[in-house]
Design goal:
Elements: H1 3-13, E1 15-18, H2 24-36, E2 52-56, H3 63-68, H4 72-82, E3 86-96, E4 103-106, H5 108-112, E5 119-124, E6 135-137, E7 149-152, E8 155-158, E9 167-168, E10 176-180, E11 185-187, E12 196-205, E13 217-222, E14 225-231, H6 235-238, H7 240-244, H8 250-261
Antiparallel strand pairs: 1-10, 2-3, 3-12, 3-13, 4-11, 5-10, 5-12, 6-9, 6-11, 7-8, 13-14
Helix pairs in contact: 1-4
């Protein structure tokens, strides 16, 4: 597998389709493990809806899942794209049954509020098609930064999506898709009686910063080599310039000052 060629393709399109990246048996074993894994409480269940469920941070307490998501072929794929220093900020098992509702167009940065790109490694743990609530993408949409998102019910919905360029991802058990957190994507309503299960792992450069998560942080690589384990800190968190990205802007500071100075009626 030519990982540099794949990195170039990713840069252009914002995603990669990886056919047969895992075996069916690997996926069946992983799904069974997730069925007994303890879920970390942070963010639990807030996006669950009719026929659509999310189980978050299953890796956090489970060595088997940790071993799966840090295996060499994943690292070899990611390092030309994400850089030599990588950590995992999130994971989720997404399950959709017949009648499972739409998850509207969005970018992941639109939901989590992060200022930097990170990388979604989406694994089909069952067949995933257009009619059973599978993944839809807009190739190249990662090049335009974070679009405005508005709340519609419990979802943040991206505005100005060019749906004429959307494509459906047809995936069999064991296929994987790596896509940018800036890429427009959605899933539609499931209209057939085929349960869909996908496992999504979010990898991020350790030189970038997530101000919304607390220690410990699950590290994957350092200088391009495996360095797996939990840590109390990482380089991006120690970089003051990263913190400045999340500092209030001058207009925000002015509004706060006015609120303090002018009594509310």
């Amino acid at each position: 597998m030519d990982f540099q060629k794949l990195a170039n393709e990713f840069k252009e399109n914002g995603y990669l389709e990886l056919r047969g990246f895992f075996s069916r048996q690997e996926c069946e074993n992983l799904l069974a493990t997730m069925g007994t894994a303890k879920q970390c409480e942070r963010g639990r269940g807030r996006l669950n809806d009719q026929g659509l469920t999310f189980n978050h941070n299953l890796y956090y307490h489970n060595p088997s899942i940790q071993e799966f998501i840090t295996q060499k072929k994943i690292i070899d794929l990611l390092t030309p794209i994400a850089g030599p220093d990588i950590w995992i900020r999130w994971d989720q098992l997404v399950s959709k049954k017949i009648g499972g509702v739409e998850f509207p167009w969005h970018q992941d940065n639109g939901y989590n509020g992060l200022k930097d790109e990170h990388f979604q490694f989406w694994i089909a743990l069952s067949p995933s098609y257009a009619d059973n609530g599978g993944l839809w993408l807009v190739p190249g949409s990662h090049k335009h930064g974070v679009a405005p998102h508005i709340w519609v019910g419990k979802h943040k919905v991206a505005q100005g999506v060019d749906e004429s360029k959307e494509i459906a991802i047809k995936a069999e058990t064991g296929d994987a898709v790596l896509f940018s957190s800036l890429l427009m994507h959605r899933t539609k309503v499931s209209t057939v009686d085929i349960d869909r299960h996908a496992y999504v792992v979010e990898y991020m450069s350790s030189k970038k910063y997530d101000p919304y998560l607390e220690a410990p942080f699950f590290m994957v690589t350092k200088n391009g080599a495996p360095a797996v384990g939990f840590a109390d800190d990482y380089p991006g968190r120690r970089n003051p310039l990263n913190h400045l990205k999340y500092a209030p802007s001058f207009p925000q500071l002015a509004k706060r000052a006015i609120k303090r100075l002018v009594p509310s009626s």
